[in-house]
């Protein structure tokens, strides 16, 4: 005879797994820690399986827990979608999406267009800034969903893609041939140190020709062939091109494009927006 999973306990389990602990999960679910712990215990007893390894300082999933997490995400997504559709719940309000300047294109405009079509009474405020500032804002609750470009991925985030970093310059430009190499970066750009360290390791002299708090100033300088920049492959604006330097400039490695805010259950609008961002990257 088929048995039914308790949806409330399942939601608590998935939230604990994605939030990285009972304390954070409880705050997201607006429950006490003891209530969340009780729901986890009830779920383990119902399945007769240990889902969490509590022996370490940080909660980890057992093999059974990892398997249930995969099922649980799909079950909850389908449950929430069906409930919203069948109850004709009209979402309204405001969401804040934070995206680094250099990866706004090509996906984010399409995400915003789709979200506006499906949730016409919800306003999405797009904040375009550098990764460190966006993560600070997300930590303070000032952004609902953010994308980042960084080497690793913190707890609660998920990596959507890995992209190589490339040198960028003016179309048919020659600034990349100059020595010292003239660079243009925003003050808070996470790729700035990578570019500088790569040039130092290769023994190539450089100077910071353009520093600004605005990406437009950097782009204008690069477009005018006054300096070069480093960015994520596949996000080059039409007026800037990837430099075909033939090995004259050092390799810059890769960066991750991470999503934060998409792993918390029970928040329909946040989940919908994060899901559209995720789908844009997985489907290309």
Structure summarized in a few sentences:
The chain is α/β, with parallel strands linked by helices and 284 residues long.
CATH architecture term of the largest domain: 3-Layer(aba) Sandwich
Number of domains: 3
Morphology: elongated
Q: Main sheet, how many strands, which sense, barrel? A: 7 strands, mixed
Derived structural class: alpha/beta
**Tally of alpha and pi helices:** 9
Cα gyration radius (Å): 22 Å
CATH topology (fold) name of the largest domain: D-Maltodextrin-Binding Protein, domain 2
Could you give the count of β-strands? Answer: 11
Bin the strand percentage.
15-25%
Short descriptors:
284 residues; Arc Repressor Mutant, subunit A; D-Maltodextrin-Binding Protein, domain 2; elongated
């Amino acid at each position: 005879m088929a048995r039914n999973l308790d949806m409330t306990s399942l939601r608590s389990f998935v939230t604990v797994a994605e939030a990285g602990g009972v304390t954070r999960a409880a705050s997201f679910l607006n429950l006490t820690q003891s209530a969340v712990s009780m729901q986890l215990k009830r779920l383990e007893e119902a399945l007769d399986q240990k889902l969490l390894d509590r022996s370490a300082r940080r909660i980890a999933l057992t093999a059974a827990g990892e398997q249930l997490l995969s099922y649980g995400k799909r079950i909850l997504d389908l449950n929430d979608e069906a409930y919203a559709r069948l109850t004709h719940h009209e979402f309204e309000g405001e969401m804040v999406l934070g995206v680094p300047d250099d990866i706004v294109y090509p996906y984010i405009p399409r995400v915003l267009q789709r979200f506006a079509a499906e949730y016409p009474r919800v306003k999405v405020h797009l904040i375009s800034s550098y990764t460190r500032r966006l993560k600070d804002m997300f930590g303070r609750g000032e952004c609902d969903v953010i994308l980042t470009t960084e080497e690793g991925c913190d707890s609660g985030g998920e990596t959507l893609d890995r992209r190589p970093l490339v040198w960028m310059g003016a179309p048919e430009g020659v600034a990349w041939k100059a020595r010292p190499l003239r660079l243009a970066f925003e003050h808070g750009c996470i790729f700035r140190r990578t570019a500088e360290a790569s040039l130092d390791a290769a023994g190539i002299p450089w100077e910071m020709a353009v520093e600004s708090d605005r990406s437009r100033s950097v782009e204008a300088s690069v477009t005018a062939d006054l300096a070069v920049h480093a960015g994520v492959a596949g996000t080059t604006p039409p007026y800037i091109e990837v430099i075909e330097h033939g090995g004259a400039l050092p390799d810059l490695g890769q960066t991750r494009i991470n999503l934060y805010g998409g792993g918390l259950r029970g928040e329909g609008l946040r989940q919908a927006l994060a899901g559209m961002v995720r789908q844009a990257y997985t489907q290309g």
